[in-house]
Specification:
Order of helices and strands: HEEHEEEEEEEEEEE
Structural class: mainly beta
Helix content: under 10%
Number of domains: 1
CATH topology: Lipocalin
CATH superfamily: OMPT-like
Mean pLDDT: 84
Distance between the termini: 31 Å
Largest sheet: 10 strands, antiparallel, barrel
Strand content: over 45%
Shape: elongated
Number of strands: 13
């Protein structure tokens, strides 16, 4: 789905939802604020950008490069995504999220890629790919709530897994040195703090916002993580609805591992279109 189309969908839902704020005077509220459980299942359409830096023996330091641009990978993706929520007690809530973005293809490099002690030169035909997955658990407390809205804060954990690989002919010290297959990979559990806000515009329309953030040094990672989402849901029946969120994840870290010393910047921004169930 084209980037502008996604923005248009969000804009349409925003306009429609806003127009209903004063159209309903009933005290009934959307099930996001009344039911114990909800689950959102749908497709996430992120625009992806991956910047890699890999320390090597040639320069002694990492030289960052745009992985998608250099290898010709598609920057758009379509992936299954899930959100889950459980409100228990009067003030407590547990949330979960999962999605995985992947891409792989064969192409000619558009720039030199310096990888550890050798170079994949511009014009070389390579096979390249990457994978980035997010599993999120978040435990929170509602500090402010009413019949139509609630606001809460809490603590969470993100399990992030990243892999990138490249296969092709390499050059070492200016000398062609045959074909190589190289991979960098890391999986890390990162803590974060976050906030959320839910507002029942009417019995059928709900607005939701959340933001998670971390800036710390954890094990082999040192950097910043943000995970955010904003959108609307329309209740079609008592137990089911449809919705759209604009959500994004940004990770900017340095990696200090024996097989990978360097930098990773991963950004995903796009629309999540989903079906929801409440009970």
């Amino acid at each position: 789905m084209h980037y502008l189309t996604r923005l248009a969908i969000c804009g349409l839902l925003w306009t429609t939802g806003s127009s209903l704020i004063y159209a309903q005077e009933s005290e009934d509220v959307h099930p996001y604020l009344t039911e114990t459980f909800f689950v959102d299942l749908g497709i996430y359409f992120p625009d992806r950008k991956t910047t890699l830096g890999i320390d090597g023996g040639i320069s002694g330091i990492s030289r960052d490069f745009d992985f998608e641009r250099a290898t010709g990978l598609e920057a758009d993706d379509e992936t299954f995504s899930m959100d889950f929520g459980w409100g228990f007690g009067k003030k407590w809530a547990l949330y979960a999220q999962y999605f995985k973005s992947t891409g792989a293809r064969g192409a000619a490099l558009t720039e030199d890629v310096e990888w550890k002690d050798f170079v994949f030169e511009v014009g070389t035909n390579v096979l390249a790919g990457q994978e980035f997955s997010v599993t999120r658990l978040f435990f929170g407390y509602e500090f402010d709530s009413s019949a139509r809205h609630d606001f809460g804060v809490g603590l969470g954990l993100h399990n992030l897994k990243f892999t990138a690989f490249i296969e092709g002919d390499v050059v070492i010290a200016g000398i062609p040195s045959g074909s190589r297959s190289e991979l960098v990979s890391h999986e890390q559990v990162l803590p974060n703090i976050g906030i959320w806000y839910k507002y029942s515009i009417s019995p059928n329309w709900a607005f939701r916002f959340r933001y998670d953030w971390m800036d710390a040094s954890v094990d082999k990672w040192d950097g910043i993580l943000t995970n955010r989402s904003v959108g609307f849901n329309y209740q079609v029946t008592d137990k089911f609805g449809i919705g759209v969120n604009y959500q994004g994840v940004k990770l900017d870290v340095t990696v200090n591992k024996p097989l990978w010393r360097g930098r990773l910047e991963q950004r995903l921004e796009g629309v999540f279109i989903y079906l929801s169930a409440f009970w």
